[in-house]
Amino acid sequence: MRIGFACAWDPVPEPTWSYTPWHLRGALRDVAEVEDIGLTYPTAVRMPLKALHARRVNGHWVSMWKHGVLARGYAQRTLRAAERRSPLDVVIQIQDLTTLRTPFLIYQDLSYGVLLDELVAGPLVHFPSLAKADAERLRDRQHAVYERAAGILAMSHWFARHLVEVEGVPADKVHVVHPGASAATSDGARTITVRPGPRRRLLLVGKDFHTKAGDQVLAALGLLRREVDPAITLTVAGPREWPTPEGPPDGVDFRGRLPLADLPALYAEHDLFVMPSRFEGFGIALVEALSHGLPCIARNAYAMPEIVRPGVNGDLVHTETPAELAATIASVLENDEIFATTAKQADEIRRHYTWERAAQDVLTAATKAIG
């Protein structure tokens, strides 16, 4: 089988979409013949489009230029030209880039239909400049691409259900393909030892501090240090700069943006992973933490309940209240059974969330789709 791999790469391709397409393409090359038909936007194209779509939201400039008509048109012309140059059996698209004559499957963690559901409650956390009219237009275009697609590879069961039950995509077109954990432990099936008490080291990893509810985590940390244990600390990694004007408060160790290779050691240094994201297509950082034996605190929303199971490997919060988050953190830190179970299941997490397994799932879905 000759597979075309189509992705709109960032200027530095490896970190595109949190390394997902880079690692998936590499793993597919081990099981099939893969030709890269992806696209890059030259500076002469990218910069004017970013400026054209720039909007100032909450004091920051944001640009959804890749969602615009001009960028979509450029992607369509580029990919169709690549398709004509080389005969392929199937194309794997990262996101819904365009329709093609060759059978194609789309790998996604969410859709514009999901975003429209969220817009009912107000502006989007992660896409603050997206207006309802634009989201509706983009949803209609996306559904037209879905209709022509041979299959949709959903990153989670939650998203697969949304596609089928809410958006009306035929169930036989939707396949769940969990991602690999790019920053999981690299030493195979080693046994994770139970972390001894006292447990005081909290960790949050994520580039978008507000989307990951970093402000809620900081407020909860203040409560914990005042009312539970002043030695409880929080390490924050991901943002390039500290996200609040007043700087990191007491008890916070800010590491900034770290290379992917440094993350396994970071997970290994901590006791509890806290990421109650306000918006989360999947939550691969939760999986990476679990692969290191760290129980997780997440939010009861999106795909997060598929990963974090209350009373088993962590807990879920339901509100924005720092007090609820602080109480949940304190409860998990004291729960020896949760830490023992998470350590025991770490090897199972590592075995499942691999890019090798993801590539095989993609290959199986592609084979089924093209008969």
List keywords for this structure.
single chain, 371 residues, alpha/beta, 6-stranded parallel β-sheet
Please indicate the percent range of residues in DSSP E strands (runs of 2 or more).
15-25%
Structural class: alpha/beta
Radius of gyration over all CA atoms, rounded: 21 Å
- Number of helices, where a helix is a run of at least 4 consecutive DSSP H or I residues: 13
For the biggest β-sheet, the strand order reads 3-1-7-8-9-10
**Could you describe the largest sheet, including whether it forms a barrel?**
6 strands, parallel
The helix/strand series, from N terminus to C terminus, equals: EEHEEHEEHEEHHEHEEHEEHEHEHEHHH
Mean of residue pLDDT? 94
User: How much helicity do the residues have?
Assistant: 25-40%
Tell me about this structure:
- The protein has 371 residues and is of the alpha/beta class.
- Helix content is 40%, strand content 17%.
- It is built from 13 helices and 16 strands.
- It has helices at residues 20-28, 43-52, 69-85, 112-119, 132-148, 157-166, 214-227, 263-268, 284-291, 304-307, 322-333, 336-352, 355-369; strands at residues 2-6, 8-9, 33-36, 39-40, 54-57, 60-63, 90-94, 104-108, 151-154, 174-176, 201-205, 233-237, 252-256, 272-274, 296-299, 314-317.
- Helix 10 (304-307) links the parallel strand 15 (296-299) and strand 16.
- The protein is globular, with a radius of gyration of 21 Å.
- It starts with a strand and ends with a helix.
- 41% of the residues are buried.
